[in-house]
Amino acid sequence: MARQAHNEIDDVIHQKTRLAIMASLAGVKRLDFNELKAQLGLTDGNLSRHLSHLENAGYVKISKGFKGKKPRTTVAISAKGQRALAQYLQALQNIIDTANP
Amino acid sequence: MARQAHNEIDDVIHQKTRLAIMASLAGVKRLDFNELKAQLGLTDGNLSRHLSHLENAGYVKISKGFKGKKPRTTVAISAKGQRALAQYLQALQNIIDTANP
């Protein structure tokens, strides 16, 4: 059973940059786009592309607003995203357990 | 620091079918090709392709021989593969820890 745990891995989260984004958001719920970009060492384009993918899956919510006169984009993990991340981590844990019996 | 753990993820192992192969081999050291195929629910072609990738990285050793008159292929994890898997699992653990502080 645990041997087929790889079929339960969520491809949206498994991509390593998206996994890092989800992990970063899970701890704090909401982050500034620029802060997230700096934390993960990504370019604007790369982060935007991965966030779109996560947004399409309903895992994050992206809000555009202003801080004073400066545009500001914030990203938050959704309840669906929290659940998906928890399930993904469990699937990984099952694989790790197989490797370390 | 832990936030950039995604850069330490080994792409050869991160692909989920290859991760399942490595996890299966880690527990038992050596498996019959057909046994591995059945355990993971893969086709011949799919398993062969992923094993080639792992063999090129030096993570597994593939031996072709005979059992009686029947050809038999066995797959074993290498010492390098064991180390790579351990490092990969540690990188994942770092990401999981970020998500569950």
Task: Kindly describe this structure.
The structure is a homodimer of 101-residue chains. Chain A is α+β, with helices and mostly antiparallel strands. The first copy, chain A, is built from 5 helices and 3 strands, in the order ααβααββα. Chain A has one domain: Winged helix-like DNA-binding domain superfamily/Winged helix DNA-binding domain (Arc Repressor Mutant, subunit A), CATH 1.10.10. A 3-stranded antiparallel β-sheet of chain A has the order 1-3-2. The model of chain A has no long low-confidence stretch (mean pLDDT 88). Chain A binds chain B through residues 3-7, 9, 11, 14, 16-17, 19-20, 22-24, 26-27, 39-41, 85, 89, 92-93, 95-96, 98-101, and chain B through 3-7, 9, 11, 14, 16-17, 19-20, 22-24, 26-27, 39-41, 85, 89, 92-93, 95-96, 98-101.
Annotate the secondary structure layout:
2 copies of one chain form a homodimer.
Chain A: H1 11-14, H2 16-28, E1 30-32, H3 33-40, H4 44-56, E2 60-67, E3 70-77, H5 79-99
Antiparallel strand pairs in A: 1-3, 2-3
What keywords describe this structure?
homodimer, 101 residues, 5 helices, 3 strands, 58% helix
Q: Can you describe this structure in just a few lines?
A:
Two copies of one chain form a homodimer. Chain A is an alpha+beta fold.
CATH architecture of chain A: Orthogonal Bundle
Strand-and-helix sequence of chain A, N→C?
HHEHHEEH
The top-level CATH class of chain A is Mainly Alpha
The CATH homologous superfamily name of chain A equals Winged helix-like DNA-binding domain superfamily/Winged helix DNA-binding domain
| Residue-averaged pLDDT of chain A | 88
The largest inter-chain interface, given as chain pair and residues per side, is: A-B, 30 and 30 residues
Q: Give the oligomer, counting copies of the same chain as homo and different chains as hetero.
A: homodimer
What is the number of helical segments of chain A per DSSP (H or I, 4+ residues)?
A: 5
Say how many strands of chain A there are.
3
The profile of the biggest β sheet of chain A is: 3 strands, antiparallel
Termini separation of chain A (Å)?
14 Å
β-strand percent of chain A reads 15-25%
Task: Give the helix/strand class of chain A.
Answer: alpha+beta
CATH topology of chain A: Arc Repressor Mutant, subunit A
